[in-house]
Write a structure and sequence with these properties.
alpha+beta, 6 helices, globular, VC0467-like
Length: 206
């Protein structure tokens, strides 16, 4: 069983932060997608699509959207089972705290949301009343772990063109075919990105 105690975004200096960037030109990427470029060969993020859920000059936190695991929510996080379909898998949210559960939902009632990421998409907070919550959301997704960047780390990766940025849509978070999300979002981005979407997983097959 995964550890579900609800998820609260850190206040003050994030746990993954080693310092601070004082940059007046800083622009938050919260609510954007990071689509892994072909040059990003880190196995944690190869061909991933990451939702930036929190981004400040102190660091960033996100969730990988396209890596379903071979374990069902009903089996691993029984407390959240009634919020999702019976065959809904847990997703690998990232390499940080892989035993911890993070859950996102699309809220019709914002009063029950813990922290919004964009539009009506928000985190499920600690110790929720599950029955009340079930009536306040239209869909939910459960993640094991998350992705984290220290101060300036994400910006450095962007300067190295490791990521392609695209505005997130609610359907990206709850993609019915997550294995296709990388190519789908690249095609949506258009231009050169739409050509990258055609690249096979093994370049030698090209």
């Amino acid at each position: 069983m995964l550890a579900w105690r609800g998820f609260r975004l850190p206040r003050g200096t994030p746990a993954w932060c080693n310092g601070r960037v004082d940059d007046e030109s800083f622009s938050s990427l919260q609510g954007q997608l990071l689509i892994a470029a072909p040059s990003l060969v880190d196995t944690n993020f190869w061909r991933t699509v990451v939702l930036v859920a929190e981004h400040s000059d102190e660091g960033a936190m996100g969730l990988v959207l396209n890596r379903p695991l071979d374990v069902l929510v009903a089996e691993a996080v029984e407390a959240l089972a009634m919020l999702v379909a019976s065959d809904e898998p847990v997703f690998q949210g990232g390499p940080v705290a892989p035993e911890e559960v993070v859950a996102l939902a699309e809220f019709a009632d914002p009063e029950l949301a813990a922290e919004f990421t964009f539009t009506e998409i928000a985190f499920i907070g600690a110790d929720p009343d599950i029955e009340e919550l079930a009536g306040a959301i239209s869909r939910a997704r459960v993640f094991a772990g998350y992705a984290g960047w220290g101060a300036g780390q994400l910006e450095a990766e962007l300067s190295e063109q490791a990521w392609i940025i695209e505005p997130a849509l609610p359907d990206d978070v709850f993609a019915e075919e997550p294995e296709s999300l990388w190519s789908q979002t690249l095609r949506r981005r258009g231009g050169v990105a739409s050509l990258i979407a055609l690249m096979p997983p093994d370049p030698s097959m090209n």
